[in-house]
Amino acid sequence: MPRVPLALMAILGALQGAVVDQGEPFPVEDQWFEQYLDHFNPMDNRTFSLRYFENGEFYRPGGPILLEIGGEVTVEPSSMRSGPNYELGRRMGGMILLLEHRYYGKSDPFGENKTVDEYQYLTAEQALEDIAYFIESYKSKTPSFRQSKVAVFGCSYAGTLATWMRYKFPHLVDAAWASSAPLRITLDFYEYYEVAGELYSNVSSECIAIVRQGYREAKVLLATPEGLEQVRATFEGWSCGNVTEMGSIEILATIRMVLSNQYNSPHYGRESCAFLQDKNSSTTCFEQLAAFVLMKDEEVCFDDDIGDVMAWSYQTCTQFGFSFTLSSMLQPFKDSESMIDVDMKFCSETFGDEFDIDQLQRSIARMNRVYGSTELKVTKVVTIQGTQDPWNKVGLQRQTQIDAPVFLVPGASHCADTYDNDYEQELPLLQQAKRLAYSLLIKWLQ
Does the keyword Amino-acid biosynthesis belong to this entry (predicted)? Predict the structure, then answer.
């Protein structure tokens, strides 16, 4: 399997859910659950160890089981002391759990240096079965758990799994909290960068003009060997990989990811434009844009575990797509490069020629057919989205059932409702959405 360039790791990492620092580490030990490798082949008895964490500090017999689903990153035990499931555990005397996703973190069936064939068990369907089997087994191990109601929680892809768990296993899952959950699976995710365009345009025409012109100037420079070296020198030492190993496609993709930072503050647009517009007449738009990227790169680019990056790459190459394309006139990055071609080339070079666009489009069509896309009829699920989150464009925008509310919070970013910090204090509508969400889950779990 080809080596994944460090620069590409940074770009792929931006597709993943954030690992949010929730404060001091929680002193909790790794727990292990023996999980079936293939839930769909009864003749295959192979198992592997799936990691989970348990926090029973508030638990009272008969209290609910509050399970946070791990997504496309290594789970962190610090999240056991924060977030919606922790707050509900405190209020309801619940057992707080966190389950890692197969192939991520320490829950990898095959370890490092996997063959492509060994990735075949990494699917959303297998992950859903993992969660269902875990819930069944966990409830059966202790008499006081057997009558406990169950709620699942998730952010980003894990929020998608939380929604699908309630849809597919209503006899096991009584309620779900889905944060920034993408439900419309698509290859051509042209809306992703539209949110960046809206963000800068809403502040001022000058701001969006600097972003557009700066990106154009970067493209012109990168078209020549001399310009490429100039751009590399400009970004030397940034947090998004070794720039000397980057080509023009990777550099431009990284610039776009920094400028569309999905984990931003409510004041991100205004603060960003204040910096971008504070340029003197001798500074080019590219130079000002580069200074901004260097200031913000640490918020987007981080050292992802190569195993996590490869696992999410496999999932996007086989089931989800989510290619951040540049075809929309509403996004600020004018570029003729086909991001779908770039992404599919990566898929075929990394996993094999059979991982092509036809295979992926069939898989995406099936996922939307089976799980209903954004027309999914599901009950007792709270969905919270933010207008500053690019992923809201492929998430639920409206309520489809009377007891499945959708909150689209102005100014909120990706998974903002899962943070325990000052962010919430700055957005009264986010506070209101969370209060309503808590009251509904308490009602459903009593």
Answer: no
pTM metric for this prediction:
0.93
Return d(Cα 331, Cα 42) in angstroms, integer.
48
| Cβ within 8 Å of residue 406, ≥6 positions away | 383, 384, 385, 396, 397, 398, 399
Q: How far is CA 368 from CA 74, 164, 315, 340, 374, in A?
A: 27, 12, 15, 19, 9
What pairs with residue 408 in β-bridges?
Answer: 385
Domain locations along the chain = 12-184+374-445, 188-359
* Distance, CA of 276 to CA of 149 (rounded, Å): 51
Domain 12-184+374-445 top-level CATH class? alpha beta
Residues for the chain: how many in total? 446
Q: How far is CA 386 from CA 15, 193, 195, 230, 422, in A?
A: 17, 15, 11, 37, 16
Mean pLDDT, 10 residues at a time, over the chain (446 residues)?
44 48 64 98 97 96 97 89 93 97 97 94 99 97 92 98 98 98 97 93 94 95 95 86 86 89 80 91 90 82 78 96 93 86 94 95 98 96 95 92 94 89 75 96 97
What span, in angstroms and rounded, lies between the C-alpha atoms of 405 and 402?
7
| CA terminus-to-terminus distance, the chain | 50
Phi-psi domain of 364 (left: phi exceeds 0; alpha: psi -120 through 50; beta: other): alpha
